[in-house]
Amino acid sequence: MERISDIANVFAFDGKLLSAAPYGDGHINDTYALVFDNGGVRKRYILQKMNKSVFPDIATLMENVALVTDFLAKEIKARGGDSERETLTLIRTKDGKTYYVDKDGECWRAFIFIEDTIAYQLVENAEVFEGTGRAFGAFIAGLADFDASKLGEVIKNFHNTADRYKKFLAALDADKAGRAAGAQKEIEFVKNRADYCGRVTGMLERGEIPLRVTHNDTKLNNILVDEKTKKPVCVIDLDTIMPGSLLYDFGDAVRFGCSTAAEDEKDLSKVDFDISLFEAFTKGFLDGIGGSITQKEVDNLAFGAILMTYECGMRFLTDYLDGDTYFKTKYPEHNLVRCHTQFRLVERMEQALDKMNFIARKYAK
Ligand code: ADP
Ligand code: GN1
Ligand code: MG
After folding, report:
1. Is the domain covering 126-363 a CATH 3.90.1200.10 domain?
2. Quick one: pLDDT at residue 95?
3. Is pTM, for the whole model, over 0.70?
4. What local confidence, expressed as pLDDT, does residue 1 receive?
5. Which distant-in-sequence residues (6+ apart) come within 8 Å of 80 by Cβ?
6. Which ligand is nearest to the CA of 223?
7. Which of 77, 82, 167, 291 is surrounded by the most beta carbons within 10 Å?
8. Please, what is the average pLDDT of the chain?
9. Ligand 1 within 6 A of 216 CB?
10. Who's near 175: CB < 8 A, 6+ residues apart?
11. What is the 26 CA–ligand 1 centroid distance (Å)?
12. Superfamily in which the 4-115 domain is placed by CATH
């Protein structure tokens, strides 16, 4: 790999590079924080090596990111906001490109570092999480006028759970890593709920719920929260912005945020679904999205949370069966541990479904 300092030198950063270090807890890209000295003033940037096996078409990915960030920056400026704080700002290469391909064919991009913010790994309290809901809801509402036909499909069938199920069955059949025999319970869990898979795609196909421009990866650490006020500042990780259902964004945020434990907690007795956090998030989300949500969407918010959690658990299990080729892992059982937390949450949400539906309808009024 080229040295980080050589890669940094390609981008139009201000000042002199002081240091570079791995940063954040994303499962996909390699993220670095770079510190620059600009005439005595310290300035930071984010430098990312994009994951080419997850995103085979980096050109389309970066076109999407550039289009969406330009669109959002204009909207933010029009309402008098600070676009360099409230959305991601790409730092282009010195020759004006949105990304750089190094000698090994690796692809790099850079952003302004959004300072004085926190990317939470666990919800701190209901009030902060209500704000997260409002921000994710407003994010979808803000993209309502964005022309979806301009967006390339960076990962085909990303939240097509029926397609994910097919891939799960193929991984099971191939059993590349020889792990299927040791994961029978988890495999049964997925199979027993196969009827969940086609429900949301079916509603989209039949036109019962609208196709919107959605974020598709709304976990808590993809939103930066102001360190002091604890108010949401910026929705980040825009790689998967594509046409999709609002249920995906709502569901994925609930999956991660309403858990009482980390996504990779080994002690399942610590993993529970917190209905009061669900209530806070739902209240914020429905407020943020405003009047454009349809009754059918409201009626399926709770199911969307179950589906996204089931899908994510199935993806972790598929990757475990494949031998850990997709998500970053720190130890051999990491994906299986993640799968366990997701399935525990699915069970808890199934038990709480009536209450969840009641809450969704209450705040939709
Ligand atoms: P991944 O796709 O691997 O999840 P992200 O784009 O989400 O990558 O970045 C990983 C982490 O880096 C985020 O969770 C956040 O903590 C941090 N991060 C990313 N972009 C910025 C930014 N512009 N300013 C500050 N922190 C950032
Ligand atoms: C990945 O990139 P990151 O870490 O924010 C994944 C999501 C999963 C999530 C599970 C592009 O999100 O779909 O829900 O891990 N992103 C991609 O933690 O696959
Ligand atoms: Mg991320």
Report:
1. yes
2. 98
3. yes
4. 62
5. none
6. 1
7. 167
8. 97
9. no
10. 321
11. 7
12. Phosphorylase Kinase; domain 1 (3.30.200.20)
